[in-house]
Amino acid sequence: MNTRINRAYEFADLSGYSFLDRLKIRAGDLVFYLLINLIGLTARFEVIGWENHEKAEENGGLPIYVFWHDRIFLTTYWWRKRRIVVMTSRSFDGEYIARFIQRFGYGAVRGSSTRGGVGAVVTSASCGWLGSTIASALDPSFPSRPSVSVTRPAPPGASVL
């Protein structure tokens, strides 16, 4: 497998963080991993429109999954162990998010609309070209997100992919 894809599945180096921040990142990572597993084990899923997913994957096609942050817990559990590459921010919060999603079998590409977004989109697209499915969680603080809507506009990074 390509080095770029492999790197997405490895924990990032935390040496740039203080000891306390490294401890918080590792604790947050483990707490969320355990919590999502517990919630996921007790959840019941009903899939409507699975034929659309199958059609997207026909003949080796790779869908791009986009979802809102308020759907992360069950989305993470449902799509686990499928080697999907997810974009997550380069923030402190993004570090423990990257770690717990990697524990579920996801790859993590770091960047957001304000920091490193272009690099994250390029790396995500490269991973897609090399055979990985791509997903992007959309931040509820993104200005164009309506409070209640059936269709929600996506930020530029998800749209570019």
Features:
four-stranded parallel beta sheet, 11% strand, 161 residues, globular, 4 strands, 7 helices, 47% helix, alpha/beta
Task: Kindly describe this structure.
It is a single chain. The protein has helices at residues 3-8, 19-42, 50-57, 72-78, 92-103, 117-129, 156-160; strands at 64-68, 85-88, 107-110, 134-138. It contains 7 helices and 4 strands; from the N terminus they run αααβαβαβαβα. A 4-stranded parallel β-sheet has the order 1-4-2-3, sandwiched between helices. Helices cover 47% and strands 11% of the residues. With 161 residues, it is α/β, with parallel strands linked by helices. Strand 2, helix 5 (92-103) and strand 3 form a beta-alpha-beta unit. It is globular, with a radius of gyration of 16 Å. The chain has one domain (3-142, 152-160).
Provide a concise account of the structure shown.
The chain has 161 residues and is of the alpha/beta class. The protein is 47% helix and 11% strand.
Rg over CA atoms, rounded to whole Å, is 16 Å
User: Which whole number gives the mean pLDDT?
Assistant: 75
Kindly estimate the percentage of residues that lie in beta strands according to DSSP: 5-15%
C-alpha geometry: globular
| Main sheet attributes: strand count, strand direction, barrel closure | 4 strands, parallel
Report how far apart the termini are: 21 Å
**Main structural class:** alpha/beta
Question: Helix tally?
Answer: 7
Count of beta strands: 4
Give the % helix. 40-55%
Work out the count of structural domains: 1
| Uncertain parts | 140-152
Neighbour order of strands in the largest sheet = 1-4-2-3
Question: How would you spell out the order of helices and strands?
Answer: HHHEHEHEHEH
